[in-house]
Amino acid sequence: MIYKCYVCVALGGLLTLVAGAVRGQQVEVPVFQQSIEKENVQVFDVRTAAEFSTGHLHNALQADYTNKGEFLERVGYLDKEQPVYVYCLSGGRSTKAAAWMRNNGFKKVVELNGGINAWKQAGQPVEGVADTKQLSVEDFRTAIGKGEVLVDVGAEWCPPCRKMQPVLDAYLKANKTVRLVKVDGGRDTQVMESINATSLPTFILYKDGREVWRKKGVSDKL
Fold first, then answer.
1. 88 is catalytic
2. Fewer CB within 10 Å, N- or C-terminus of the chain?
3. pLDDT tens per residue across span 123-145
4. Catalytic entry in 8, 88, 158, 161
């Protein structure tokens, strides 16, 4: 009977370890901070765009976990073979997001225990605090008023926007007369509303202030 109890205890401990491995990792700030400094690491912020603009971790990508359409679209641009370090405000949303990712083929997903709240309390820096003034509709109209202008509605934290950067660079290199105007998808909401840009990325070509074509989402050319 004693032998069986020892076996049960050992088996229970083994099952706990296996279950922990399946669930993945939840680490404290120092480990998270050291880990995201490595190469080929993806940092994933699953808060809203408004929360993201109050400060985020370096090089973080963003997708609102509570917006299922946005989350499913943007998570599709992450590399399942490379580690993903995920966080939210305090840990609730990132735990759910990480569970979904593990169940959908991501090899390594690590959560920040306590979220960005814990990060800030530990004295770690954030970047991207939205202290820049919105681009006004009037200034935007002036910027696109003459010549050929390509408007890029996107954001550095948007995974599909990053994927389109080489395509955008190639287009501008091949079309040297075209000027680029960037509209920040997390800040310039009045301009986005005025041009009916509802998704990121959106590319719109203007000639002397008149829209001649637009393209939404990811493609291999503009």
1. yes
2. N
3. 999 998 766 688 999 999 999 99
4. 88
